[in-house]
Every structure is written in structure tokens, then in C-alpha cells.
Amino acid sequence: MKNKNIFYITLATAFILLIPLMAMQFTDEVVWSLIDFAVAGALLFGAGLTYKLIAKKGSTTAYRAAVGIALTAVFLLVWVNGAVGIIGNESNPANLMYFGVVAVLVIGALIVHFRPHGMAHALFATALAQMLVPMIALIIWQSQISWGGAGISGVFSLNAFFAILFVLSALLFRRASQS
């Protein structure tokens, strides 16, 4: 990878991190610590670098879009889960199951060597894992299932949002495999 790409990823990461930094100057609603900035920076830089490394493996627009959507879904899943939690709050042990969702995708992608047809299967499996998390949580932690005061329906809606992103990515990988 060229140093130029790393420079652009670093620049984009810094620019995005300026948004909460500037917001902190004008409102008390945004309060980030140094650790928050470090984690956000690592997630943003890691997502950008991963996109550059994986997207170049595919020659079609569908492949690159599929990679972008999958990485966006993983980024948002990790971000939301770490910031406020998806099931209950961020300290609820049920939220640890979302690491399993990401692991399904990572392990699947490695097994299929990022080939589009295999990536489609890996992302369909990831979407299934995403929807299994609230079901398992409901069985084990019945009384602690809620998201943002929206209750069980809020948890399932948010998980469905992520599952839809994974399915959309899978469909784009499938399309890329037919090209």
C-alpha cells in the first residue's frame, strides 16, 4: 500500500475527529475523553485501512460497494455497542455476543479468501448471527432487554437494521461474483 493512501486515511480520520472536538467547544452535550478520541480514531483509521486493503481485491463497483457497506455495518455495530450498548446499556454482558457477530464475518472472510461468492455466504451467515443475538439475549436475560427506552422492539429493530446492511452487502457480493 502506498504511503499516500495511508496519509489520506489519516487525514480523513483527523477531520472526522474534529467534529466532536469542535462540538465540545460549543455545548456540554458532547463530552469526550482522550480514550474516546483514541478509540474512535482507531476504529475510523482501521475501517479506512481495511477498506483500502480489501476493496482492491475486487475489480467491480459491486465488490467495492459491498466491502464499504459491510465495513460501515461493523463500524457502527462496534461503535454503538461500545458507546451505549445495544441490549440494555454498555455494561450488559449480553452485548458481548456482538463480538461473535463480527467474528463470524472475519472468520468467514478469511476462510473464503475474500472471494465474492464466498463473501456473500459469509455475510448471509453474519446477518443470521446478528438476528440470533437478541433472541438468545431474550431467552437468557429477559428482564434486561431494552434499547434507548424502546424495549424489546427497539432491540430487534436495531438488530434488523444491522442485519439488513449485512444482507445488502451479501447481495452486492453475489452480484460481483456473477460479473
Task: Explain what this protein looks like in three dimensions.
It is a single chain. The chain is mostly helical. It folds into 2 domains: 1-56; 59-179, no CATH class. 77% of the residues lie in helices and 0% in strands. The chain is built from 6 helices and no strands. The protein has helices at residues 3-26, 34-55, 61-83, 97-111, 116-140, 151-178. It starts with a helix and ends with a helix.
What is the element layout, followed by pairings?
Elements: H1 3-26, H2 34-55, H3 61-83, H4 97-111, H5 116-140, H6 151-178
Helix pairs in contact: 1-2, 2-3, 3-6, 4-5, 5-6
The total strand number stands at: 0
Q: What portion of residues is helical?
A: over 70%
Oligomer: single chain
- Please provide the ordered H/E string of secondary-structure elements: HHHHHH
Count of discrete alpha- or pi-helical segments spanning 4 or more residues: 6
Q: What shape does the CA trace take?
A: flat
Computed over alpha carbons, the radius of gyration is: 17 Å
